[in-house]
């Protein structure tokens, strides 16, 4: 049986999402829907979670399950928010956590992961996955991918909250990195009401997911392309394999937004709702502002996925990251050194859909 065949038999279900929601309830917040004045847009502020992003939902679900199985050390690679969530969840369960971040990660996110007790390793962006797997093998740690089954199920809990709060919703807009959040929300929303359209939103400078959706084939972009966007949490070069299996089954559309639109959305969220959104967190709202004329009738929900932005940083000033400084590269444990980047390449197909 091929990897693709295995994935197709292990999709997350609504029952998995319900179980995850119950499992994580003591550790996360049930976020409300906030109406944007004068618009048919409702914003779900996941920046109010303990680590200021939705990532805590999936991380807690995965870590709690692993802890119950006797796992004592978890590891993950991340642009920042998944790292913080893993660190938080591991601390709550008394587990050791190691996180691998790119040298472009905002210092705000690096410091937060350390403050939560994680061991942090910094590498060039193109080496995140490679370093994570090497360290997992060296330490005997369990890898928690940001589109792992339990992570997707945990993220789905956000979608499970939407329909009871807004039964007449016409569409839900979800930011897309490697697709775990979009996959989970799509499962939950479609189970509650198949008529609600679930739409992924990406920066046009990191639109590997939209390219995959349009072609029907999971497609990778080189990090030299995806790292151009200011939305540092959405720079993954390719959709996760398991996330993709959900996306091309349940998601109705994928759209993209400009960098200017992302900045405008962040300013709007701050001005009208008092919600601080990092660039990645403002992308779904930007999708509404850019594409509202083409969205189906009825209320629209946008997931404000994160608010890890430095206090005092004006939304209009955000460019290339959440804060002005980024992390410096560090040597890997054991003396290995990760340096350099790969040449600029064209997007490439990684597998057939």
From TrEMBL:
UniProt keyword Lyase present: yes
Swiss-Prot/TrEMBL keywords: Lyase, Pyridoxal phosphate
UniProt-annotated stretches for the region Disordered: 328-353
Entry annotated with the keyword Transport: no
Domain Tryptophan synthase beta chain-like PALP: start-end pairs: 25-306
Lineage: superkingdom: Bacteria
Pfam families linked to this entry: PALP
Cofactor(s) it depends on: pyridoxal 5'-phosphate
Name of the protein this chain belongs to: Threonine/serine dehydratase
Native species: Nonomuraea salmonea
């Amino acid at each position: 049986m091929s990897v693709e065949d295995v994935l197709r038999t292990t999709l997350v279900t609504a029952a998995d999402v319900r179980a995850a929601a119950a499992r994580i309830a003591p550790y996360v917040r049930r976020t409300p829907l906030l109406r944007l004045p004068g618009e048919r847009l409702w914003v779900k502020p996941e920046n109010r979670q303990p680590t200021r992003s939705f990532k805590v939902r999936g991380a807690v679900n995965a870590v709690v399950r692993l802890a119950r199985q006797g796992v004592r050390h978890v590891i993950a690679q991340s642009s920042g928010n998944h790292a913080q969530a893993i660190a938080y969840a591991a601390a709550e369960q008394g587990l050791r956590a190691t996180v691998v971040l790119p040298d472009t990660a905002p210092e705000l996110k690096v410091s937060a992961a350390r403050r939560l007790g994680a061991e942090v390793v910094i590498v060039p962006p193109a080496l995140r996955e490679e370093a994570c797997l090497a360290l997992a093998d060296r330490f005997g740690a369990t890898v928690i991918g940001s589109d792992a089954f339990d992570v997707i199920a945990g993220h789905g809990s956000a979608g499970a909250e939407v329909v009871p709060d807004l039964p007449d919703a016409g569409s839900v807009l979800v930011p897309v990195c490697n697709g775990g959040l979009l996959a989970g929300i799509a499962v939950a929303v479609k189970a509650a009401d198949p008529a609600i359209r679930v739409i992924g939103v990406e920066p046009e400078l990191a639109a590997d997911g939209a390219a995959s959706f349009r072609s029907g084939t999971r497609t990778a972009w080189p990090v030299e392309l995806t790292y151009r966007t200011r939305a540092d949490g959405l720079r993954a070069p390719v959709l996760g394999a398991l996330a993709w299996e959900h996306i091309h089954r349940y998601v109705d559309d994928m759209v993209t937004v400009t960098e200017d639109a992302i900045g405008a959305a962040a300013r709007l969220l701050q001005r009208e709702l008092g919600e601080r959104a990092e660039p990645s967190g403002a992308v779904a709202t930007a999708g509404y502002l850019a594409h509202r004329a083409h969205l189906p009738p009825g209320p629209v929900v946008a997931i404000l996925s994160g608010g890890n932005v430095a206090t005092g940083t004006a939304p209009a000033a955000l460019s290339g990251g959440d804060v002005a400084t980024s992390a410096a590269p560090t040597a890997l444990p054991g003396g290995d050194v990760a340096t350099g980047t790969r040449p600029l390449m064209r997007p490439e197909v990684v597998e057939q859909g």
